Each structure stands twice: as C-alpha cells, then as structure tokens.
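Comment thread on ticket #2218

A.B. wrote:
> Attaching the input chain for the structure job we discussed in standup.
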Amino acid sequence: MEKEILLGSNKLNVESNTITGGFTDINGESFYKIANYHQMDPFFMTIVSSSDHWMFISSNGALTAGRKNPDLALFPYYTVDKIQDSAEISGSKTILLVTRGNKTSLWEPFSDKYTGIYKIQRNIYKSVYGNKIVFEEINEDLGATFSYQWMNSEKFGFIKKSTITNNLVTTCSISILDGIQNILPAGINRQLQLSLSNLVDAYKKNELVNNHPIALFMLSSIIVDKAEPSEALKTTVVWSEGMENAKILLSSRQLNNFRKGQILETETDVRAARGAYFINSEIELSAGQNKVWHIVAELNKDAGYIATLKHFVKEEKNIAQLLQNDVNNCTQDLVKIVASADGLQLTQDKLSVNRHMSNVLFNVMRGGIFDDNYTISIKDLLEFILGANAEVHKNNKAFIETLGSSIAFPTLVEEIAAHKDEQLIRLCFEYLPLAFSRRHGDPSRPWNLFSIEMIKYCFKNLYIFFSLSR
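C.D. wrote:
> Ran it. Output below, let me know if you need it in another format.
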C-alpha cells in the first residue's frame, strides 16, 4: 500500500497524466502538440529561421540562441548537457502571485522546485515549419494558464510572447514577474565565455534607458590583455511591450524577494552581474480574460539603432501587430525556401507530409539551395575565380564579362566548356553559389561548428531598421 506523502500540511500531488501527441491549430497555423511532456525525459530541439537566427532549446526550457554562429550568442553556447542543466538560470523565467479573495498563491510555471504542490498539465507545441515553439502550463488548482512562445524576426530579433489566462468565472489579481535570464553582452565569443566566464561576469554592465522599457547589456570595456584602452561600442538590446507601468529588473537578484511578496525596485544600472530582463506588474483578469505581452532581444547593436528604437517604442501605437507581421513574413520566407527544394506536399497523411517537409528543411540547411532558380551572378563568379586563381581570372575576365550580368547555371557550363580552358572549367564546376547553408554543428555535436552565411540570400530581402513602423 502506497504511503500518503505530505509537503508541509499539503498532500503531495503524484498524479501521472498520459502523454499524447497530435496536430493542432494556433491562430490558423499548424503545430504539433505533446501533452504532458514533462512526464518524459528532457529532449532537445532546434528552432529554425529564414535568416541567420539559431536557437537550440530543451523541453525543460533551457536554451541557447544567437545570430550567425556561436560567437554571436544571446545566451551562453554550451554543450547540450550543460544547457539542460541551466533551466533555472538561462532563458525564460516566470514567477506569479495569484490572488483570489483573500488568498495569494505563489506559482512558478515550468519550474520543478514546486513539483507536487499543484495539479498541473504542461503542453508543448512546435510549429510544423520549425520556427516557433510554445510552452504551456495549466494550473487546475489556481484556475489559470500561463504560456510563452519563442519566435524570430528579421527586423526585431528574438521575440518571447507571454500569455496569462484566467480560466475561472471569478476575477483574480496577479502580480507578474516575467523575463529572460543570463543575457550575454555584445563582444563575448564562445571561447571567452567557456574559459573565462567569471572574468566576463566582472566586466558586464547592464543599463536601463531613461524613460523607456529598453535595456542595454554591454561590457565596461573590451576584454584584452594589453595596457591600452579598448572601448566597447556594441550592445545587446532587450525591450518589452504590452505591460503598462511595469518595473524593470536588469538582474536576477530580486527574484527571492518577489517570492516572499516583497516590493521590488526598478534597476537602472547593474554592474558585474549576469544580465537579465524582467518586467514586474500587477494585473486583474475577469472571467476568461487574458493578458499578452512581448519581450524582444537583439544582438550586437550600436547607438544609432538604440536612438531609432527609442523613437519606435515611444511613438508606435501597434507594436504587437508589427512584431507578429514580421514573424509571419519570416515564416513565409521559410516556406518559400522549403518549396524551392520541393519540400511541400499535400496528402491526407499529415504526419508524413510534415515529416517530409522537416527532412527537406534540414537537408537544405546542411547543403543550401541555389537562389533565384540557378541564376548566377557574373560579378560573384569573377570574385570567386579571382580568389581561387588570379591567373585564370586575368586570362578569362574579358570573356566572362561578355556573358552579361547574370546567366543560368546550365548555360554557364555550356559556355565555359566551349571556351576550352581546363582550369576555368574546373573552377566553374567547383563554384557553388549556395544560399541558406548552415554547415554542421550544434550543442549535441560540439566538435563541429556552424556559421550561417546569409549574404547572398538576404541581399534582395534586406530590411532597414528605420522602416520599422512602415
């Protein structure tokens, strides 16, 4: 006979719900849902992008993310075991104080600190395109649901969308502390973080922009072993929208104060501490009502970007919709990339259709695609030949320029073969103007490194930050 286990004076909740999976729609987009995923061992996922974003995330919420390669990381890039061990210190973190009547309850969604206290259900949803993921926790005892979603945007960077919903017919008040932790400042490469992380912490400087919900995470100076000044001119930028009159924290130092119900103080300047961005606010939800807000992070930005962002955050009236619009545009760009490699199918077997799309996407990410239907830029071809063999470039430059500004790859092969320069023929067959190729590497294979080179593909899709509000 099983013993009844108590936590204090409360009975330990040891219910084990069934793990199920299936497709579902969220706002008209197809996602695959795993219900009660927390009953499984933690598993690792990759969140993809049509641009140079990268994100590797565990089902326990721990993650690493950044742009282009591990040297441009938003959260520390470690091996998969260390990432999964960092669930409480890296990535998303939410703490809630839910008040109904005269009773206030502490709820920390997705944290295993309070396992067995509440009757909960946790669900995870991943977009069939692989570029969005949603974590959801339903607290049946408190009658509330909290979820957060990671998305990426070419214009804005990484977006965390949070939603709190009141599931009961009675009104509730909620004190919210929500944000992201262990934010890296600009100027920290992978090797520096791995070998000298304690020194890196000492150089960190987190500042709040006056009268704006914008935080800057930077170095007090570039870390160099020379007796000379080296000013840090780039910064990681994090900002938020949707939570009115919120206090902002730039570190995790006050989290325990919040758990104890103490009043928090806005942090404007924090030195020598790991970066974090938390918003703290009080809201009231009527029956069935929800509240949505966003936290946005971007890397390696300068003073001009910050000045423009200040104007955008202050003047724009519909930021949430602009965020979603650009996320949707990036999703459409990703679909076009998959379609160019014949990755879209339409049958009644939805599982096979999406399995095929996923396989094609990851193959494209390994090997790349020929952008613009195998049309070759003559200028780019000449640059390649010059870099490979200056003599061949000198002997054939005039001939190649007669081919025009662009040419189809099969036609190029025919023209070059007729020219009968063996070295030129060899170089043209070696020339592979591939876009979207990411190379091998991820935290589960740390012996390989990746670098997402997007120059060719993004050339016709460049965004200028000054057009954010258009």
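A.B. wrote:
> Thanks. Noting for the ticket: The chain has two domains: 6-329, 375-432.
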